[in-house]
Amino acid sequence: MIVLQDLSQKLIKNSNQRRILSLVRQAKKTTKAEIAKCLKLSIPTVTSNITLLEEAGFLRQSEGADSTGGRPPAVIEFLGDSYYSVGTEIKWESTDIIITDLNYCCVARQELAVGLKAGMGSVIQAMEDWLERSIAALQLPAEKILGVGFSLHGIVDEESLCIKFPFADRWFDFSRYKNRLKWPVFLENEANLGAKAELEIGLAAREAHDIVFLSINQGVGAGVVISDHLYKGRSSGAGEFGHTVVQNQGRRCRCGMLGCWEAYVSVPALEESYPGGRRPAAEIFESYERGEAAAVRHVDEYIHFLGLGIRNIMLILDPDYIIIGGEMSLYAHLFQDKLSSVLQESLRPIHPLRHILRISGLKQEASLLGAAMLPLESVFNLNNRIL
Of 24, 132, 158, 180, which has the maximum CB count within 10 A? Predict the structure, then answer.
């Protein structure tokens, strides 16, 4: 994750404050004694840090309920609407943008009719205009926005502030735009952000510790979580499974190579390879659901190639779940059972049989919500969950 500036550092001064705030946020309401016990801190340390967090507006203290054992302990309450965060996912022809509170609840959302095709400058200008209108409508002071997280479909270089988009043959320098917005700016790959969202508020938050979030959109990428930590690799390029080869001398991928998995299972690959000419994914799956022969054959072939790649991921990483996200999550319920059967049959000789496929409950919003989480990571002590 790239942080171009960090407002939260001014609001939260030390790691104990972050630990306390994260604990109270999870509990919603608690007491100083419970905080001290859980975090192994002294009561004076807890008291002084809670005072500072209360002054910053994150927490509120109130008198506890009456009890027969003397004066009741003060209740420490998390204020989810004390600050806000902005998340944006920039795509080729459009940009999704959202404002959330500290509990990741959406207070405003919009799809802007401008994307990378129009240029990053145009995207930033459209974002500025929308944010100005939305913040005024919500009557939010600008200082209540902790930052803006960007979800980007490419590899993010954390040292140079450059992005390698899959459709371009050169790196894009984001640093020239870092001062256009009045808030701290955070950058991350979209599949990694989908995995972050699943880890924090999705399936993995409740049921798993090792997941692969498979983002199937215009391209195919994956966010890999190992022991509750996002794995990014040495050069932040981990999870580019879309460019593993599933067909020798196969279809040409937009990266220039032949036979990449993305060339068979991305949404455009599904649409453009339809017999007789390109057909939108929504129409293909409507026909598939009705049992039309051409659509069934086409989707079955798609399932075959999707299964090849997922099988490879399973054998390499053996996660608790592989979660299908992105645009394909809108349709995956129609072929989930068939895909699971294909996987179980192909894995039967060498791997214990279990149901690992899940469809993201966050659907297409996972990456966008993950972007809104970026400014909050240092607030809630979450940026230590990266390998």
Answer: 24
